[in-house]
Amino acid sequence: MLSTIALFSSSRRVGNTGQLIDRIARELEIEVVDLTRLRMSSYDYDHQNRTDAFEPLMRHVLAHEQIIFATPIYWYAVSPAMKVFLDRLSDLLELPDLLSEGRRLRGKNGYVVCTSACDEPSVEFLGAFVETFRYLGMHFGGAVHVNCRDGYAPAVHDSEALAFAALVRAAVRGPVPRGPTAP
Q: Which helix (H) or strand (E) holds 114?
């Protein structure tokens, strides 16, 4: 069974994206890590930030096979703390003592949960995740986007959260194994 964790970042913990990921997390019974509550420095070419929360967080994240990235769309981009986290993934590709940890991302499933005041996320927004996952050797499992122009409304949006949770759960179950085939 694959385990799943959600990484969340937003200016408002109980805003639209927070409500969406919390509904998904309740359905899947998974942990949601609020990146804005962690002390994580921006990417540093000299890697003078090794004592912040990034490396312990990554050890925790790498214990899971599926990672959900949840962020509102701010000006066609991820929230600031999510951007810092994504940039810091470079540490796993550059620091010799972290290379083996970075390789552990290969084969993991990555998902995107996002909200905005538009009907769809931009191709560029989702493309940044898809390309990042591809570069890291991860599989893009899918995304859910909710138009929250009028706020998150459980009566309207919970069905989308539940459908997304079903998608993630289906990956957890994996394909039904086949028995041996007769000649």
A: strand 109-116
pTM: 0.92
Phi-psi sector, 151: left (phi>0), alpha (psi -120 to 50), beta: left
Q: Where are the alpha helices (DSSP H) in 46-114?
A: 54-61, 80-88, 91-94, 99-103
Query: What CATH architecture applies to the domain 4-173?
Result: 3-Layer(aba) Sandwich (3.40)
Interatomic CA distance for residues 40 and 144, integer angstroms: 26
Tell me the mean pLDDT in the region 142-157.
Answer: 96
Instruction: Delimit the domains of the chain by residue range.
Output: 4-173
Q: Return all residues near 151 (Cβ < 8 A) that are at least 6 apart.
A: 16
How does residue 177 score in pLDDT terms, banded at 50, 70 and 90? very low
